[in-house]
Structures
1.
Amino acid sequence: MYLFCSLWEFHSSFHCLPSWRVDKKDLWPVNMYPPKFIAVHSYIVYTFISSKITLQYSPKQDVKLILVFDRYPYEVIEEIADFITKGSGMRPKIGIICGSGLGSLADMIQDPKIFEYEKIPNFPVSTVEGHAGRLVVGTLEGATVMAMQGRFHFYEGYPLAKCSMPVRVMKLCGVEYLFATNAAGGINPRFAVGDIMLMHDHVNMLGFAGNSPLQGPNDPRFGPRFPALVNSYNKDLINKAIEIAKAMGIESNIHVGVYSCLGGPNYETIAELKALRMMGVDAVGMSTVHEVITARHCDMKVFAFSLITNKCATEYSDKKDDEANHDEVMAVAKNRQKACCELVSRLIREIHLASA
Ligand SMILES: O=P(O)(O)O[C@H]1O[C@H](CO)[C@@H](O)[C@H]1O
Ligand SMILES: Nc1nc2[nH]cnc2c(=O)[nH]1
C-alpha cells in the first residue's frame, strides 16, 4: 500500500505537463512485485507523465497494480475504437447514450454485437442502477449504430474527461451523430412527469466551477483548443423530432428547453432549484453536458433529450412527494421507454433515409 500512496502523490505533481505519445506496450496492466519495484518504477513514472493516470490497487492479486487512465491519449482511444470496429465488423454512424432506465433504446438494435464494458480494454465500468454497462453495436432502422447501455457520471468518482471518453471512441469508430438521452428533474412548471424535453441549450454548472472534459493538453486530432458551443444542439434534428412527436400524437408532451448538469449524486435543494429556474434552466440532471461538449469538440452533430422523471419542487413544503428519488426516476423511465424508443428510432430512420 505504501507503494500506491507514494506513486499517487508523485502522479499528482505531474498534472500540468503536456501529454506525450504513449507506446502501446505501456498501456497494459503492469504486474509489480516488491523486488522488481525499482526496475519498473521509472517505467511507470514515464507513463504518468504521458497522461494523467491513477493507479488501482487490486487486493485479489497480491501486489498487482493496474494503470487506469484519467485522461486518455489519442492512441488509447484509437485502440479501443479498433477493438470495437474489428470486433463488430462495423463502423457505426450514429452513437446513442442511454439515460437512467432508458437502456431499452439499445435493445431495439438488430443483430447486436455486445461488448461488456469490463471486457473492453481501458474502459471504465458502470456503477449505477439502471446503467447495465454494455456497448451494443448493430443496425437500427437501416442505420449502423452503437449504443452505450450505461454512462459514466462525475459523482461515480470519474473525472469528466473519463465520463465523456466514450464519445471520442464513438468518433474514432466513425460516428457522426450523437444521440444523448437522460432522466432529469423538471424545473419548468409547465413540465409534467413523463414529458420529453428536447435540449436546445445547456447551462454547464460544472463548467462554472472550473471543470471541463476538455481540461488539460488539447490534442488537435480531436478538435480545437477553444471550441465554440453556440448552436451545439442540431436545429434540424430538433425540428424533425417535433414533427415525429406530432405524428406520434404526443406533441403536448414534448417541449424544447435548457438542461443543466450538476455534480450530484445528491438531488438539489429548493434554493438551488430556484436559482436554476432564474437562470433559465428547464430541467436538471447529472450528466450529458460534458458528453455534448466532447462531441461538439470533435464536430459531431448532437441530438439530446431529457425524460422528465420527476417534478422539482421550487417552494418549501413538508410534502414527502417533493423529494426526488432514484426508484421514481427508474419507474418513470420504464413507463415511458416505449415513447422514447419510438422517437429515437423514427429520427434515426429519417437520418438514414436522408443520407441514403
Ligand atoms: O443522467 P442520467 O444518467 O440519465 O441519470 C440521472 O438520473 C440519476 C439520478 O436519479 C442521475 O444519474 C442523473 O444524472
Ligand atoms: N440532479 C438531478 N438529477 C436528476 N435525475 C433525475 N431527476 C433528477 C433531479 O431531480 N435532479
2.
Amino acid sequence: MGSVEERLLLPPPPARSGDAGAGGAKRGKWEKTYLDVLGVCCSAEVALVERLLKPIDGVRAVTVVVPSRTVIVEHDLAAVSQSHIGYIAVRTTALADNSTVARMQRLVEAAQNSRSKTQRLVDSCAKYYTPAVVAVAAGVALVPLLLGPRGAQDPKRWFQLALVLLVSACPCALVLSTPVATFCALLRAARMGVLIKGGDVLESLGEIRVAAFDKTGTITKGEFSVHGFHVVGDKVGMSQLLYWVSSIESKSSHPMATALVEYAQSKSIQPEPTSVTEFRIYPGEGISGAINGRQIFIGNTRIMARSSCYAAGAGPEMEGQQGASIGHVIVDGDHVAAFSLSDDCRTGAAEAIRELRSMGIRSVMLTGDSKAAASRAQRQLGGALEEVHSELLPADKVALVGDLKARAGPTLMVGDGMNDAPALATADVGVAMGLSGSAAAMETSHATLMSSDVLRVPAAVRLGRRARATVAANVIASVGAKAAVLALAAAWRPALWVAVLADVGTCLLVVLHSMLLLWDPAGAGWRRRGGGGDPEACRATARSLAMRSQLAEASNGAAGTAQGRRPGGGTKAGCHCCRETSEPSEHDHTAVVVDIPAPSAGAERPGVVAPTAAIGCCSSSAREACAAPTTVTTVNSAPRGCCGGIGEGDSRENARTSCCTDARDSPKKAGKQCNARCCSGGKQDTLKSQAQDTISTLK
Ligand SMILES: Nc1ncnc2c1ncn2[C@@H]1O[C@H](COP(=O)(O)OP(=O)(O)OP(=O)(O)O)[C@@H](O)[C@H]1O
Ligand SMILES: [Zn+2]
C-alpha cells in the first residue's frame, strides 16, 4: 500500500573499534569491538546481552561493562564483521504520526482546544455583557444631569456609584470560574491515569446515571485458558488442525487467539502465520483465513452460519463446560472441531461496580461473548451488575447504549475492542481501556484509561461531579460577591476600594477553590501518582534487548530454514507484533469488516474523533478507505509488521497494544507479548510515562 514505508536500516559501525586503535587491541585474527549500549542500566541485563551476542558464529567473548554502558566483543573479523554484530533491520509499517504516543498528543491537543458547555455560554454572554455594563455605568454617572437641579446636589455620589458598578461588573472571576476548574480537573484526571478529551466530557461525566461495561478485556483480564479442544469427525487430524488454527489465530489480536496459539505450542505445534492468506476479522463472530488451500473459519455459532456450516452442536465433549466460551472450527464448510475457553474478572472490577452503585449509577454488561461466559463473569462479580446482555454484535451494543440513554439517562460505556468503538461513540461518555485496548476504541472514545484499572472509572465520575460542584460554587461566589458590593453601594455609600477588593478577592478565591480539584482525596495529596522508576526502565531495556534477539533470529530464519517456525519462536513465540519481521508474502493482507453507525448530532462534541476513525485506520490509505460514505467498511492493509503499524488495516492486531500494558500488568503476558513496543526502538516501553509527559503540556 502506498502509505506503508519500508526501509532497511543498517546502523553505523560501532562507536569504537579495535582496529582503529582507539582502545582496541588485535590478537592475531581476533578483534575487539567496543559498543556503546546506552540501554544497559543494571547488571541484570548482562546475561541478556551475552545471550544475544555469544551465539553468533565467530564471537569468542562478550564483556559487559555496566557503569560505562560498554559492551566489548571479541570476534573473528573474517567470520563476523563489526556491522554484523545485535546490525538492526527495521521495517516501518506506519509513520510516527500513527504511534500511540502521537495519538495521545493529538488527544491532549484536542482536549486543550475544546471548551465546555458552560464555558461557551459564559464566553458568548461576555460579548454583550461588557458593552451593556459600560452603557449602564455611563447612564448612572449621567443621572444627575437627567434629574436636573435636584439630582445635581450629589453628582459625586452618582459618579462613584458608576465607578463601583464598573468595577463590580468586571466579570473576571466569573470568566475564570469554569476554565480554571476544568483545567485543574483535566490535569487531576491525567495524573490519576484518565485522559479526558475536554471540558465537555468532564461535564458529562458528572451527569452519568448508567455505566455499560464490555466484558472481555474490560471486566475480565482478557487472558483466556483453553479447557478443551476436540476434533469432530475424522476428516482432519488434531495436529493438522492445530497447525491451521494457530497459524490463522496468530494473525488475530483477540484474547482468544493468544490462548489458542499457546495451546497449539503447548502441543509442540508451531504456527506459521506467513502461510495464511485472505485473513479476515468479523467483529462479534470470529476470523477466517486460507491455508494449504483450505478455507477456514474460527469463531462462535455466527461464524458457522457465515461459513454456510450448520452443525448440530458443539459435541458431547463440550457439554458441562460451565461458563466457558465455546468456539468452532470450520474447514471448507465442514465443522471439524470445537473448543472451550474462559477468562477471569480483573481485580477491582467488582469494587468499581459497587462504587458506582454507591454513587447511584447502574452498571450493565454488554458483551459479544456467549451467555454462559457472561453469566460466569456476573457470578465472579457477585451479581453486582444490574443487567447482562450477551452475544451482541457491534451494532447491538450501539442499540443498547441508545436504549440505556433513553430509559435511564446519561450513559457511560467502557470498552476495549474494535467491536466496542461504535458504542463508545454513541455513549454520552465513551471510555477506552487505553493501552490494552484497540486504537479504534481509543480514538472513538471520549476518555481513555491509561491502564487496565477499572477502578478509575468511578474515580473519573467522582471527579466529574466534583468539577461540576466546583464550577457551580465558583459562579455563585463570583456573582454573589459582586451583587453584595453593588447592593451595599446602592443602599449605603459607594466605596470603590470595597469594589476593587471584592473583584480581586473573588478572582483569587475562584482560582484557589478550583485548585482544590488537584487534591487527591484518596491519599496521594497534591502529588502525582505512579511514576516509572528504575525497575521499569530496566524492564524496558530488557524487552528491547530481547526484541533484538528476536529480530536477529527472524532474519536468520528468513534465510530459508525452519519450516513452520515463527520468527522469534526460539525464545517465546507469542508476540503478535513482531512475528512478521521476515519478508512478507504478497498475499499477506488483512481485511476488517465492521459496521460504523452514522454520526449522531451528539457526536459533534469537541475532541470527539469522527466515526471514520472508528475502525482504527491510521495509515493514510486506510483513512481514505474509511472516509468512504458507507456504513460497512472494508480495509485492506499492507502486510503488517510491528507495533508501528498501530491501526493499520487489521486494527485489532496492530492497534491492540495490550502487549505493552499487559506486559507490565501481568507477569503471565510479559513473556509472550514482551516485544510489542520494542518495535519503536523501545520507546513505547515507557509509554505510560511518555504519555504523562505529553499530558504535562496541560500545565
Ligand atoms: N480470533 C478469534 N478466535 C476465535 N473466536 C473469536 C475470535 N474473535 C472473535 N471470536 C468469537 O466471537 C465472539 C465475539 O467476539 P467479540 O470480539 O465481539 O466479543 P468478545 O471479545 O468475546 O467479548 P466483549 O464484547 O465482552 O469484549 C467471541 O466470544 C468468540 O466466540
Ligand atoms: Zn472487549
